[in-house]
Amino acid sequence: TKLSSQDVKFIAVSSFIAEEMKDKIGELGFDLFMSKPVTKDKFKTILMPILHKEEKIEKDGKKSISGINVLVAEDNAVNLKLMQIYLEMFNCIVDTAQNGKEALEKVKTNKYDIILMDIMMPVMDGFKATQEIRKNINKDIPIIAITAAVMQEDREDCIQCGMNDYIPKPINKEQLEECLLKWAGKF
């Protein structure tokens, strides 16, 4: 098959890049940024969505989440592992962050289709991280709150701060899949 210029992706790879330059990567003609040292996980996170992008619609017309790139921001190791297992069962590409600040940094340098964001984390909570992502990085990416807070006002707080949806803990596999199907490819 013949490649078009739209098929070619340019990735800036550097051991050092100033924060203000990360925001200008697109202006400089690059699609993505990868910091050195390049590890297997970084390589997978950056390149897998490009190399193995699957159609979001399967042959029978049913929506699919296979191949979508998901960032999970969660500080609880058990919850994080459970979500990783579920997401890998759905054939999603998974990246993780231990807190909101780490999630913010990853969103600056990587492309994700959906973010699953715990609201109560150390360093920076999910509310603040979501507001920063919306204000400074990506106003459209679907951000799904994951939280043990189940009151209606908790859900409203999540939506008010810029999250698109809400999944209560403990995470239920079917509920997670349904939410991902709802938001995959929305923006």
Short description:
The protein has helices spanning 19-22, 40-51, 77-89, 100-109, 126-137, 152-160, 173-183; strands at residues 11-14, 32-35, 69-73, 93-97, 114-118, 143-147, 165-168. The chain has 187 residues and is α/β, with parallel strands linked by helices.
Description:
The structure is a single chain. The chain is an alpha/beta fold and 187 residues long. The chain is built from seven helices and seven strands; from the N terminus they run E-H-E-H-E-H-E-H-E-H-E-H-E-H. The chain has helices at 19-22, 40-51, 77-89, 100-109, 126-137, 152-160, 173-183; strands spanning 11-14, 32-35, 69-73, 93-97, 114-118, 143-147, 165-168. The model is unreliable at 52-61 (pLDDT under 50). Strand 6, helix 6 (152-160) and strand 7 (165-168) form a beta-alpha-beta unit. Helix 4 (100-109) packs parallel to helix 5 (126-137). The strands form two sheets. The chain has a five-stranded parallel β-sheet with strand order 4-3-5-6-7, with helices on both faces.
Distance between the termini: 28 Å
Strand element count: 7
In angstroms, what is the radius of gyration? 17 Å
User: What's the average pLDDT?
Assistant: 79
Write the layout of secondary structure elements.
Elements: E1 11-14, H1 19-22, E2 32-35, H2 40-51, E3 69-73, H3 77-89, E4 93-97, H4 100-109, E5 114-118, H5 126-137, E6 143-147, H6 152-160, E7 165-168, H7 173-183
Parallel strand pairs: 1-2, 3-4, 3-5, 5-6, 6-7
